[in-house]
Specification:
Oligomer: single chain
Bound molecules: protoporphyrin IX containing FE
CATH superfamily: Globins
Number of helices: 5
CATH class: Mainly Alpha
Order of helices and strands: HHHHH
Helix content: 55-70%
Strand content: under 5%
Shape: globular
Amino acid sequence: MSDPELGRFWQHRSKDSLQREKQLLIDFICSCAGGPLLYVGRDMKISHAGMQISEKDWSAFMGHLNKTLGALEVPQQERDDVVAFIDSTRNDIVEC
Ligand code: HEM
């Protein structure tokens, strides 16, 4: 959210909306990883449709993901699993 390249997606949103989105992101990933957890948010296509998220935005996002997994010293196997899962959502999220 603080990356100037991506920050525009979260401008002018209330603190509560940002917190809600963060929790839904956590829930979505936990639920897809087997939970058990009931994800009550919207699907990836519906929740990102119309934002015009580009390949360039996606690369910047994946860069942050990789840096974070590195900083947390996540082991390679888990790292590959997380990256593969997140990348599997790309077609639903990237629009241009
Ligand atoms: C460049 C990449 C991405 C950008 C710029 C982005 C941006 C956003 C924004 C601005 C929202 C709020 C939408 C709204 O409230 O109307 C949102 C919602 C959400 N995003 Fe993303 N997103 C990205 C990638 C992802 C990925 C990879 C995932 C999951 C693997 C994800 C999961 C979610 C979830 C769970 C929500 C909440 C859905 C709901 O409100 O029901 N996003 N995203």
